[in-house]
Amino acid sequence: MTSNSTPNNQTSTEAPAVKRVLTGIKPTGTLHLGNYVGAIRPAIQAIQNSDDEAFFFLADYHGIIGCYDPAIIHESTKAIAATWIACGLDPERVTFYRQSDVPEIQELAWVLSCSCAKGLMNRAHAYKAAVDINMEKEDVDPDQGINMGLFGYPVLMAADILMFNATHVPVGRDQVQHIEMARDIAGTFNHRYKPLFTLPSAVVDDDIPLLTGLDGRKMSKSYNNTIPLFGDSNPQVSAEKQMQKAIMKIVTNSQLPDEPKNPDDSAIFEIYKAFATPKEIADMRESFATGIGWGDAKKALFEKINDEIAPFRARYQELMANPKELEEILQMGAEKARRHSRKQLDKTRRAIGIKPLAKLK
User: Fold this and answer.
1) Nearest to 58 by CA among 345, 334, 283, 316
2) What is the per-residue pLDDT for 3?
3) Please, are residues 330 and 81 in contact by the beta-carbon 8 Å criterion?
4) What are the tens digits of pLDDT across the range 256-273?
5) Average model confidence (pLDDT) for the chain?
6) Which of 27, 141, 215, 345 would bridge 77 by S-S if both were Cys, CB 3.0 to 4.6 A apart?
7) β-pair partners for 96
8) Residue 250: how many CA atoms within 13 Å on its side-chain side?
9) In what order do the strands lie in the sheet with 95-98?
10) DSSP 8-state symbol, 228
11) 269-305, pLDDT tens digit by residue?
12) How confident is the model over 149-164, as a mean pLDDT?
């Protein structure tokens, strides 16, 4: 793992006068309650309560690294854009754009790849994990099934960040290495050519809860144990009913309704805490101690979540039915983003010697 400090002999550019936050999400599936509590809600709240510049983007080119279904990429992009807007992201307040609408990012990724050591990419966690899986098999090449998108993923992520000279990048702990790599790549470029790129800092908030899923493990699409935020596209069952049905599937023990229960061992109580006030949490803890039935606990959990999500759900459904509005929002964001990216790419090109040979009349 690389260092958080500026690498030896590598120059950092002076940070922007204001804090600049950048957040991206891959469009490779429907969002669930864990995404909302762990990323969407805190990101929106943080921006609403600050004067920071903020960039939010849909990382659709990252999505094609492991998803080869065009329909999923397209529909997920639509659904995730609708989710952010429905949950309160103000496209007038932030720069909200689709990665693929800012072609300068892809060009910058190539330029940065030429200032990135292959050995740095060899140490990327995702790549090493894929190699380790292959090494466990007999007569299999270590790189079997690994595409260059996966291998070079940290460079594209660096371009996402450095294009806008983001100062702060909120990530989970599993993504911190990528921010450190972006710092290394920026430092190398700055030292070799010109100090154009700010060295970003990873922001990890350990106070944000990681929700437990239906089966007691971390809530994750990989485990198929999630509670859908706005449901799937099944027209036969409303999104509200889908959420209620999922909550009723939360695994519990065999204790009877009148038996005292330990709230700290319950996924129901853990999820409830992420939506309730301190008084409501205290009251629910008391209910566990006096023997609330699991069915009643799940009903209370559903009602608490639904109180917060229902208004967003209505706006989400409206946006999903009107993709033209979403496209207009994304195009507005792309133009705002390109005001930055065009200038940054021009500076980068000139720094590496790619510029007009002479002025023409």
Assistant:
1) 334
2) 37
3) yes
4) 998 999 999 999 999 999
5) 91
6) 27
7) 56
8) 28
9) 95-98, 53-58, 20-25, 168-170, 201-203
10) B
11) 999 999 999 999 999 999 999 999 999 999 999 999 9
12) 97
Cα(24)–Cα(87) distance, integer angstroms: 16
Q: What average pLDDT does this structure show over 330-359?
A: 97
**Strand locations in the chain, DSSP E?**
20-25, 53-58, 95-98, 168-170, 201-203
Query: How many whole angstroms separate alpha carbon 98 and alpha carbon 341?
Result: 13
DSSP string, 172-213: -GGGHHHHHHHHHHHHHHHHHT-------EEE--TTS---B-
Find where tokens 């204790």 sit.
Answer: 255
How far apart (Å, rounded) are the C-alpha atoms in residues 186 and 193?
10
Q: Which residue, among 84, 79, 38, 33, has the nearest Cα to 57 in the 3D structure?
A: 84
3-class DSSP state for residue 54? strand
Give the model's confidence band at 17: pLDDT under 50 very low, under 70 low, under 90 confident, else very high: low
Cβ-proximal residues to 360 (8 Å cutoff; 6+ apart), any chain = none
Which tokens sit at 49? Answer: 């309560």
Do 162 and 16 touch, CB atoms closer than 8 A?
A: no
